Amino acid sequence: MSTIRLTMAQAIARFLTAQKTEIGEQILPLFGGVWAIFGHGNVAGMGEALHGVRDKLPTFRAHNEQGMAHAAIAFAKASRRRRMMACTTSIGPGATNMVTAAAVAHVNRLPVLLLPGDVFANRKPDPVLQQVESFSDGTVSANDCFKPVSRYFDRMTRPEQIIPALQRAMAVLTDPADCGPVTLALCQDTQAEAYDYPESFFAEKVWTPRRIRPDESELAEAANLIRSARKPFIVAGGGVLYSGAEKVLAEFAQRHDLFVGETQAGKSSLPHDHQANLGSVGVTGTGAANALAEEADVVIAVGTRLQDFTTGSWALFKNPNRRIVGLNVQAFDATKHNALPVVADARVGLDELSQALGSWKAPEAWVAKGREEKTRWFESSARFTDPTNVELPSDAQVIGAVQRTSSPTDVVVCAAGGLPGELHKHWKASSALGYHMEYGYSCMGYEIAGGLGVKMADPTREVIVMVGDGSYLMMNSELASSVMLDQKLIVVLLDNRGYGCINRLQRATGGESFNNLLQHTNHVTLPDIDFAAHAASLGAQSLKVKSIAELEDALKKARSADRSTVIVIDTDPLISTDEGGHWWDVAVPEVSSREQVKTARKDYETALASQRVGD
Description:
Blueprint: E1 3-7, H1 8-17, E2 19-23, E3 26-29, E4 31-36, H2 45-52, E5 59-61, H3 65-78, E6 84-89, H4 93-96, H5 99-108, E7 112-118, E8 152-156, H6 162-173, E9 181-187, H7 188-192, E10 194-198, E11 205-207, H8 216-227, E12 232-236, H9 238-243, H10 246-255, E13 260-262, E14 277-280, H11 287-295, E15 298-302, H12 308-311, E16 323-328, H13 331-334, E17 340-343, H14 346-357, H15 364-385, H16 395-404, E18 411-414, H17 419-426, E19 435-437, H18 446-457, E20 463-468, H19 469-474, H20 478-484, E21 490-495, H21 500-508, H22 531-537, E22 541-545, H23 548-559, E23 565-570, H24 595-608
Parallel strand pairs: 2-11, 4-5, 4-6, 6-7, 7-9, 8-9, 12-13, 12-15, 13-14, 15-16, 16-17, 18-19, 18-20, 20-21, 21-23, 22-23
Antiparallel strand pairs: 1-10, 2-3
Helix pairs in contact: 1-2, 3-5, 3-18, 8-14, 10-14, 11-15, 16-17, 16-23
């Protein structure tokens, strides 16, 4: 057996360069690069190793470990999970800064390889700088925090351990059902230790997507159930996009006269003007999609994990006889809430399900209702997004301005706060992957870093990041990275002076405005933050606009700019779209001295009666 002597870190770097993926007719590197912030736990080992392969595997320097992992995750999502990135950090805070991002990837079923440094395997210098010591367990390190948010976790204490560990890691990262974050904790002394690795370990490997075909009996049972439906309805999740099933979904819906509601992850599965597309579904859903979801007797859930924002906390599907068909590569998701499972890839599953249904179509009366509801919603949505001259526009009015100046190939990126709900309802996605929302974990601070990852995945598309002032203040450092890497973003920063979304939720549950908007916080002096000046200090072009008309002009100019541009506009923190949507389960206190809370509690108890759990 031929061998080559390398340090463990060098073996990791060489192995990653040998992993390829086939997209269309192209063979591309599976790993688009490695994000690295070096410290004493990885600079000598991984730093030297990555320097040696820098021409084959680019290393990108970030400004925040969580931010760089967000960028890597967004890259994978924008690449339909067909390409991914790795992230390496020092031990201690460098490592634990990535734990939140690992949770983002875990919840959203997205691949990212995390390579945090770890303590000394030989324990001779213990405790080392930044080491977390357990008084009862000598094997614990800070990296144990990754265990609950990793699909696969391993700790390298000997150099040869990387051989099975990397093979297992790749099996998880490329598996459509188990896909998610992998953490390989790298003891810092082990990174530098050498071993005679078999050359075969570094042979080129081309990864192609595994397309799981449905079980014949599950398929037949699902087809029989759908044929019996009088009010069928499709919920399209992120699995549609990861599978590349948009065309098949469109054909399936058109052939059988079915209507589709899109989750946050599934939005852009169909063009907004496709006859079957009723827009968003659930808590932040359109009036059209939710009207059909409420009456549906068979819900065909394709590639969705059916989280509470999709199901209206399991109170949206009100038909007492409704059944769910769960078409999903992951049995865990396909079987939720007593669903009839069809464990399969979305593209293959829809194609074979369509064949099994033959010429069956949904009843004409149901189709007519769907068309009426869609027309009604589009007219309603326009009222919220039309141009205005108000001093403080709403989020929806800002979205309308961005939409009017956008191109069909643009990608809008967002994450947390009130914007996701307004975008879910109002944004008109024309092309697949044109809507990029991190709402599985609803992670504030994802937006700019995520936008950077999206741009790196496809530099040909204009990437528009929409972010509130709260999220911007939480994490903005990768704006500097976008300038440094010449990856241009257009950032629209909506300043409502606080956490406007949670303030509205606080009031809706009977609470007083407290500790959310800046004016309601415990303060001596209210900050007057110049966001445009701050963005300029990070190297971006920036300006503040005073109206929707000025915003549209600025957006047009930003499209021709040579680097990232941040456009700041003040907005009203109290206004949101009051049409469409659905109740969401947010527990209201049973006991309070305040009448507003007592009233909210009564309304809450009434709403709870609509929940259907376990059926």
